[in-house]
Amino acid sequence: MPELPEVEVVRRGLDQWVSGRTVSSVTVLHPRAVRRHTAGAEDFAAQLAGRTLGPAQRRGKYLWLPIPGTGTSLIGHLGMSGQLLIQPEAAPAETHLRVTLRFDDSVDTELRFVDQRTFGGLAVEDADPSDPESAPLSLAHIARDPMDPRFDDNAFLAALRRRGSGVKRALLDQTLISGVGNIYADEALWRARLHYERPADTLSRAQAALLLASARDVMGAALAVGGTSFDSLYVNVNGESGYFSRTLDAYGRENEPCHRCAAPMRRAAWMNRSSYFCPRCQRLPRARV
Length: 289
Fold this sequence. Notes:
The chain is an alpha+beta fold and about 290 residues long. It has 2 domains: about 5-140, N-terminal domain of MutM-like DNA repair proteins (Alpha-Beta Barrel); about 155-275, Helicase, Ruva Protein, domain 3. It has 6 helices and 10 strands; from the N terminus they run αβαβββββββααααββ. The chain has a 4-stranded antiparallel sheet, covered by helices on one side. Strands 2-3-4-8 form a 4-stranded antiparallel sheet, with helices on one face. A hairpin with a 2-residue loop joins strand 2 and strand 3 (about 60-65). Helix 1 crosses helix 6 and helix 3 (about 155-160) crosses helix 6. The longest helix has 20 residues, at about 205-225.
């Protein structure tokens, strides 16, 4: 699933190619793609036709474009395989094309939502009037992410150190910190030399701060090269892949030498996923008595 850097790359593309344009028509080719819009596909299209889309925003893994003057926003989540692509209107339809937005200007491009597995989706939702970014109300429980200038470091560090769960589980809790997924959690933990099952409430403040800094650093590095692509499912709005997979330190490197100590990296099953770690650099402390 795309994580914060990948979604931010898409947000920047939407801001460049879609924000400020007025929708002329919407075509929904698969109702599951707008299942979060409870009023149905026809209403989804009607809510957007003739509306101008505002600046592209992001919270964690969610994207939205405010619709000025309506108190609503167009919200999107890429799910496992969703793609928001800018394509020439005459370009052939993708195999898994689900929704198309056309615009009323002279720019010969349209916005396409393509989703092979149909876990992602689009919707028009009421915006939170108290939120300066007009975030949809459904995102009220989603925490800000560590790349957000409004992210409260002190509040996060205090909340993290109160958690009795393993530190990786805490990193993936979108009500605590958003945008961090399996890949960047493993990368940040490797950089901070922390085992994924280390109880979060055993971290010193310095360790917790190093983990937060590591998460920021690794996601910033990934963002600089377009994110992480392992296959064709994640691409930016122009269909281009990211290249951070070439410089990963932990994720996907089972049995390869640790870049720090040369010990073979290990993979462990964890919560229906995998965790990659160095058994020498990221030792699990002894259980508390």
